[in-house]
Amino acid sequence: MTGSEQFPQFPPDFVWGVATASYQIEGAVDEDGRGPSIWDTFSHLPGKTHNGDTGDVADDHYHRYAEDFDLMAGLGVDSYRFSIAWPRIQPTGDGPANPAGLDFYDRLVDTMLAKGITPAATLYHWDLPQALEDKGGWMQRDIPQRFAEYTAIVAERLGDRVGYWITLNEPFVVTAFGYALGTHAPGHRLLAGAFPIAHHQLLGHGLAIDALRAARVSGKLGVTNAMAPVHPATDDPADHTAAHILDLLHNRTYADPLLLGRYPDDVPAVYRGADLSVIKDGDLDKISTPLDFYGLNFYNPHRVRASGPENFGHEIVEYPGVTTTAMGWPVVPEAFTELLTGLNERYGEKLPPVYITENGAAYDDKPDADGRVQDDDRIAYLDSHLRAVHAAMAAGVDVRGYFCWSFLDNFEWAEGYAKRFGLVRVDYETQERTPKASYDWFRSVIARTRDAHGE
């Protein structure tokens, strides 16, 4: 263990897991009937990703999953959060299922279960079928229904064996980076005009929950939001206004409809010029259908100051005296506690049990002469953030589990292969897997919890 104080004791039923996503690890993008996704298209456009990197091969998990699950079993995790590639199931985003795609995820789930690992399936982790994007993607009112139909197909095949179902991963990131700013697939720059993307994702979530319940799946149902506390850079009222705006854009636009059944009152003022007529009668009732759990991804908070209208009135600035990860993200673990306790205060009994569905850090770790990766910075990050989670639990937040991002180094979206988040190093030339020091540390954390409770 690291840290000057004794590592905190987590409950005996606390779920320990790791997480990945389909396009980031699978490769095999044109095998067994898989159709192209928006990330296949986007990553092949010049200048869109670091070094022109694509997910064509990634970690070749499609062919190497057995080896990966052996490593995962050695880690001792209770659960594995993976995502299902919509284009493997429906190559054009609608119509009948592709049997080979379903067979692949059948094999994954059965292999996990054989090793005592509970599957946690994410239905949408950003790889929208390109054929649906060609029809307008998430801007279109009918895409939520297409998503529900895809969900029903997957639920029928896997519904008896998946322990946790996550409808969407980080709808804020899809809206902001994929459609408002254009730095992620599909690369649109709609600014405030991207609001329909947010709403249609949330509606798709509600319809997908209906589809899962109609299929009588055995697992728990939830969604995952990326959230972050926002702090004003100074006491200037303008900076406080800027922080309020980013909090609305990043956090409350998504959490309030899901948990309270309404958008924040100031959505029209912040999303100036956006088409809010996409919100139809009954939509918010569907979006706020009760959940079994709330998935939360956290990496870092934001410190902001007032800026011009082209940036929605805010600009992100550095935290003084704070270290950063290889992504340039500030390391402020106490903000994790702040986020969790703040959720509890804002949403109260409307907040279901929370699972940390992603938390981790990228560092420029490299193997030494003996091939070992001594990633002490990552260990320190994980240690401090797990302590922050425990502090929130001690303050009354019902956190049931923690999934480390990421199990493997992988394709990190626009950053390509330049940033490494994994507990396991991947040599992208040879596909050799090497557990890092953080893998051993996380294994010891899990083992310590079990030993303390006599398991």
What is the topological layout?
Blueprint: E1 15-19, H1 22-25, H2 38-43, H3 61-75, E2 79-83, H4 86-89, H5 99-114, E3 118-124, H6 130-133, H7 143-158, E4 164-169, H8 171-180, H9 195-214, E5 220-226, E6 230-232, H10 237-260, H11 267-270, H12 283-287, E7 293-297, E8 302-306, E9 314-317, H13 334-347, E10 354-358, H14 376-394, E11 399-405, E12 424-426, E13 433-435, H15 437-452
Parallel strand pairs: 1-2, 1-11, 2-3, 3-4, 4-5, 5-7, 6-8, 7-10, 10-11
Antiparallel strand pairs: 8-9, 12-13
Helix pairs in contact: 3-5, 7-9, 8-9, 13-14
Task: List descriptors.
455 residues; 3-stranded mixed sheet; alpha/beta; 13 strands; TIM Barrel; 8-stranded parallel beta barrel
Strands ordered across the widest β-sheet: 1-2-3-4-5-7-10-11
How would you spell out the order of helices and strands? EHHHEHHEHHEHHEEHHHEEEHEHEEEH
Helix content: 25-40%
Broad structural category: alpha/beta
Number of domains: 1
CATH first level: Alpha Beta
Content of β-strand: 5-15%
Residue windows where pLDDT falls under 50 for at least 5 positions: none
Instruction: Label the CATH architecture.
Output: Alpha-Beta Barrel
What is the name of the CATH topology? TIM Barrel
Number of helices: 15
Q: How many DSSP E strands?
A: 13
Average residue-wise pLDDT: 97
Largest sheet: 8 strands, parallel, barrel
Cα-atom radius of gyration: 21 Å
What is the CATH superfamily label? Answer: Glycosidases
EC number: 3.2.1.21
Keywords: Carbohydrate metabolism, Cellulose degradation, Glycosidase, Hydrolase, Polysaccharide degradation
Enzyme class: hydrolase
Protein name: Beta-glucosidase
